[in-house]
Structures are given as C-alpha cells and as structure tokens.
Amino acid sequence: MSNVLITVVIKMRFFSFFSPISGKKLYIWVMRKNNLTAEDVWAMFAELAESQKETDRQMKETDRLIKELAARQEETDRQMKETDRKMQKTDEKMDKWDDKLTGIDENIGSHAEQFFQNTLEKKLEFGGIKYDLMVPNLAYKGKTDEIEFDIALINGDSIAIIEAKNRIRPRFVKEFAEERMEKFRKYFPEFKDCKAYLGIAGFSFSKKTLEEAERYGVGIVRQVGDSVELEGRLKVY
Of 9, 73, 108, 230, which is least surrounded by CB within 10 A? Predict the structure, then answer.
C-alpha cells in the first residue's frame, strides 16, 4: 500500500475493502494516528477478519440451535399424536364397557321392576292404605311429550306412584317429586281429586338417596324376603 493511500485513509478516518471471507464490502473507522504504517492497516484487516469469523461461528451456532429446537418440536408433536391415539383407543374401550355395564344395569333394573310389580300387586298396600288394583307402566304418550310410571296403586281417593330401579340416584328423587309429578298432574286429569303418594323401590340405596327421599316425603320400598317393606314419612302430592 502506498503512502498516498495511507494519508487518504487517515484524513477520511475510515476506509473500505472487499472481504473474501464474507464476500461483502466492509468499512473500518479508524482513529487519527500519526505515522500510521501498512502493518497497522493489515493488523486492522486481520482483526476485522477474526471478528467476521466469530460472527459466522455464532450464526452457525444459532442455526444449529434452531434446527435442534425444530427437531424437539417435531418429537413433541409425534408424542402428542401418539398420546391422542392411545387416549382414543382407551375411550373406545371405555365406551364398550359402558355399553356392557348399561346393558347389565338395564337387565337388573328390569328384574327389580318385575319383582316389585308382582309383589305390590299381591299386597295392594302402601303406607298403610289399601288399594283396589295395581297398574304396571302407567304411561302417557303425546305428540311432544311422554312419561311412564313403573307402578300405580289405585283406589277411589288415593294413588300411590312407585318407581322401581336397581339403583336410584339422589337427583332422581328430586326429578320424581318435582318434574315427573308435575307431568302426572298435567297428563292424568282423571286422578285430579286423588291424593298422590310417592315411593321408590330398589335393592339398595345410598345415604344421599335416603336423605333426599326423606326431604321430599318419598317412601323407600325395600325387598324383605318375598315381600316388601315401606320406610319413611309420606307426603301428599
């Protein structure tokens, strides 16, 4: 490099050169320095080249990290898809078991209904009141609504409505005493002058079900040998 070029560089305080490493035109800002030599300029070139190498190294490291994160995300997505597949298979198995258990429960429920219908038809008594006949599956079916009661004991001024299930859940007691009885009064006007008494018949009852029955004045009908017993305080509906 000539002394003229060095003098120009010093006066302009920066110079440019083409970097063979990056393939770009680079600029160097230099402090005014008296007696700047060619060695000084080449030292600055070397320092800049080293800085460019570090920049390239950092960019490569960044690319590596991005690729690594992408690979991890791909593996996470694969694991999530596998988990979804396993959960779907589990749901399918649960649905099959639920269908089987529902079928078993319906069979036991039908047995309970048949047993209490037969027993109460022979006894024709509920809550100390004698009845004239037992009507199984007292039903109403209209265009927009329908309802059915498992057992109805009837005489001249009273009707006992009894639902027979294998298992009676607490919420059913509330539904029976409120919603179902409202429909009974609506769809069976022939019993409008009759006192109505409610009962739930089953082979087992939870504590919560018994509490709900007591709260609503619904009698509990239990199997005792070949007969039945009534428990609880009855309310007139």
Answer: 73
DSSP letter for each residue of 157-207? SEEEEEEE-SB--HHHHHHIIIIIHHHHHHH-GGGTTSEEEEEEEESB--H
Could you tell me whether strands 158-164 and 195-202 are parallel, antiparallel, or unpaired per DSSP bridges? parallel
Model confidence pLDDT, tens digit, residues 149-172:
999 999 989 999 999 988 888 999
The identity of residue 234, as a single letter, is L
Domains belonging to the chain, first-starting first, are: 113-231 (3.40.1350.10)
C-alpha to C-alpha distances, 171 to 55, 163, 192, nearest whole angstrom = 71, 14, 26
Could you tell me if 167 and 129 are in contact, meaning their C-beta atoms sit under 8 angstroms apart?
no
